[in-house]
Amino acid sequence: xxxxxxxxxxxxxxxxxxxxxxxxxxxxxxxxxxxxxxxxxxxxxxxxxxxxxxxxxxxxxxxxxxxxxxxxxxxxxxxxxxxxxxxxxxxxxxxxxxxxxxxxxxxxxxxxxxxxxxxxxxxxxxxxxxxxxxxxxxxxxxxxxxxxxxxxxxxxxxxxxxxxxxxxxxxxxxxxxxxxxxxxxxxxxxxxxxxxxxxxxxxxxxxxxxxxxxxxxxxxxxxxxxxxxxxxxxxxxxxxxxxxxxxxxxxxxxxxxxxxxxxxxxxxxxxxxxxxxxxxxxxxxxxxxxxxxxxxxxxxxxxxxxxxxxxxxxxxxxxxxxxxxxxxxxxxxxxxxxxxxxxxxxxxxxxxxxxxxxxxxxxxxxxxxxxxxxxxxxxxxxxxxxxxxxxxxxxxxxxxxxxxxxxxxxxxxxxxxxxxxxxxx
Length: 425
Prior knowledge:
Layout: E1 8-12, E2 18-23, E3 29-36, H1 50-57, H2 67-75, E4 80-85, E5 90-97, H3 101-113, H4 119-137, H5 140-152, H6 166-169, H7 174-184, E6 190-196, H8 200-211, E7 230-235, E8 241-249, H9 257-268, H10 274-282, E9 289-295, E10 300-308, H11 313-330, H12 333-350, H13 354-368, H14 374-382, H15 386-398, E11 402-408, H16 416-423
Parallel strand pairs: 2-6, 7-11
Antiparallel strand pairs: 1-2, 3-5, 3-6, 4-5, 8-10, 8-11, 9-10
Helix pairs in contact: 3-8, 9-12, 9-15, 10-11, 11-15, 11-16, 12-14
């Protein structure tokens, strides 16, 4: 299952701008994009939501291209262009055929470096984002995770929503975008990542023309995240109670980062997992239930989610905690072997996509200042032992701070104190 080493090449321009590529033989297409180390956690309180708004505005026109021309130039060659904002980064990327890589890089460089911030377009996109916020509020299994993040990291940039509150979005103007760009879009905060049918030297030469003239500047300093925890109950007349539970997990550089992922895969990562088998298959308490581990720069979060009836949310919560406790006592070698294989297979299948490869390289480069080989990642997954997982599970239940959100007809539901008490029984 161990793959051959990946042909990854890295070049850093004198101003700190990094270019990383990976040639994928046999492909006729490529993914190319700019990953900026500026997301929601880099916003001040009065800026909350602006990183995401800025991502939208990048597509609304430059001095060289209208919004329509940005879309047409990529789609005229059969390509695809998109962007996203997370708490730690903003990405602008395209997928095109091999001969159109220079065009894609030119378009992406243009929208990242030269957005017009036209007032008319700001107003149009403001309305779009307010609709997006409204849609999220109307989607229980979306909004509950924003609330969980706020409860876990209260009064911190890392706990704020990516979309931002409507009242902030309603007030942003051209100067606000310009300020955020000047503070966070320096060349040292940008990574050009490309994978597929790519030529590293050609991409470096073009990147030097587009980005080489940017002045180096110090990177922004962001507030470290501190998982506090607590709970939030939002009572609403819905068909189900949406249940989201989180524990503090390890950050990406922590020795337990891979242990946390193996643990959550075995606990709730698929149909064979403990939570799915016990709570859905044996008890029929929910349609879906899952656990996942998220790792960020300086913190992490173990999250469990399910939807169930008002009458059964207490039982679902109790069984969830029982399974966490039991995992610290009797997690078997066969369960862990299955979890490790699931993780490795999922990663390798995903890396058949050049977009996934480009994203992986950008993220790893931002963390480690290098791109670890896939074989190195597989070795770290394989190194996680049953003893590691049992220790991690026991520590999670006994020591890690926790957060709970319930949304729906949950007036008679459970609470965090009663859930934690089951781990001590």
